[in-house]
Specification:
By secondary structure, the protein is an alpha/beta fold. It is built from eight helices and 13 strands. The strands form three sheets. The protein has a five-stranded mixed β-sheet with strand order 3-2-1-4-8, with helices on both faces. The two termini are 13 Å apart.
């Protein structure tokens, strides 16, 4: 038995999440001792250059690591080279047109997979090389951690994780993923890895789990697909669900009439309006892909569960309910807090 683990819970543990939002690095921290939340605090730093971390931010993170007995740094992965698919085999990736040699992948309960490109993982590791990163979280796993907290619904549900720079759309039947898609909601490509890197020249990196543990891993080590030890085994799912024709589900008229110009009062409202229009298009195209592509086990969907980690307008909600005729369940979430909770569960388990 690891004696450090035995006594760790009696000492101060700090869990630090790092996310980008509104042109800033948001550093959110939670301090836990003996299973009790002792403190939580936030500090923001301007993003001056997307390929470097400000010196003051590095100093701040190092100080936090020095001030507490155990410190865990987690980063939210918000780059384009990632996704989730139904299946775990090489052929499943090939069927989804994913080059398995260019991504790090892991499977969940031997049913579905999350993947991320070597380029994006290397970029984050290099970006935080001076302070060290313990965990890297895919938005699909952040979304999944929120789904597991909900009451199990024995029917296909579309879930949407809304963040400032991205939206993650998934379809789950109970705890089994049927469809996954990730979209950026900004045009700033510099928020992720450099486009100048050559995918074919990237060497394979170590595998990731629902969180990627980067401490103590040599760059020469190359792993394969790993199961998530922290996930419970799921019950077998009943695949016999009612299906429907997509054309009966989505109207041909793509008018966004529910957005009234007179309700757009200022520049911030206009920006939110444009963003919601984009998300609506992503949502509609995802539904169309799920219903019409034979690759997916499509079933009738009448409910959308939104985990809102940024902001969604009431007009957007009205449009989904009135034009797509779908019920909506809204859940306001703090992505930074969720990441800290995931890290705590992983580190102290």
């Amino acid at each position: 038995m690891n004696l450090t683990k035995v006594f760790q819970k009696y000492l101060s543990n700090i869990f630090i999440s790092i996310v980008q939002q509104d042109g800033e690095w948001i550093i959110y921290s939670k301090v836990v001792k003996n299973g009790i939340l002792k403190d939580k605090f936030t500090k923001n730093f301007d993003i001056k250059e997307h390929d470097s971390v400000p010196t003051k931010m590095q100093d701040y993170l190092v100080k936090l690591q020095d001030d507490y007995s155990f410190a865990y740094l987690s980063v939210f992965l918000d780059s384009m080279g990632q996704g989730a698919i139904n299946g775990i085999s090489a052929s499943d990736f090939e069927n989804n047109s994913i080059d398995i040699k260019s991504v790090t992948r892991f499977d969940i309960d031997k049913k579905w997979s999350v993947y991320a490109s070597f380029i994006d993982l290397n970029w984050i590791k290099n970006l935080f090389s001076d302070v060290g990163i313990d965990f890297i979280y895919s938005p699909f796993m952040v979304q999944y951690s929120l789904i597991k907290k909900q009451k199990t619904k024995n029917k296909p549900i579309l879930y949407m994780l809304n963040y400032q720079d991205s939206v993650t759309i998934s379809v789950f039947d109970s705890n089994h993923l049927l469809f996954g898609a990730y979209f950026k909601t900004t045009t700033d490509d510099e928020l992720s890895s450099s486009d100048e890197e050559d995918w074919e020249n990237v060497e394979e990196e170590e595998s990731i789990e629902n969180i990627i543990d980067l401490d103590g891993i040599d760059d020469d080590d190359i792993g394969g697909t790993e199961d998530l030890e922290s996930l419970n085994e799921f019950d077998d799912l009943d695949d016999e669900t009612e299906s429907t024709d997509f054309d009966e589900r989505l109207p041909e008229d793509s008018s966004l009439g529910h957005f009234d110009d007179k309700n757009i009062a200022d520049e911030s409202s206009l920006e939110l309006f444009g963003r919601d229009v984009l998300i609506y298009k992503y949502l509609k195209s995802s539904l169309q892909e799920f219903y019409t592509n034979s690759l997916y086990e499509s079933s009738f969907i009448d409910t959308i569960v939104i985990f809102d980690g940024y902001e969604i307008s009431s007009e957007f909600i009205d449009m989904i309910e009135n034009e797509l005729l779908m019920d909506i369940e809204m859940n306001k979430v703090n992505i930074s807090d969720t990441i800290c909770t995931m890290a705590r569960q992983e580190a102290l388990s």
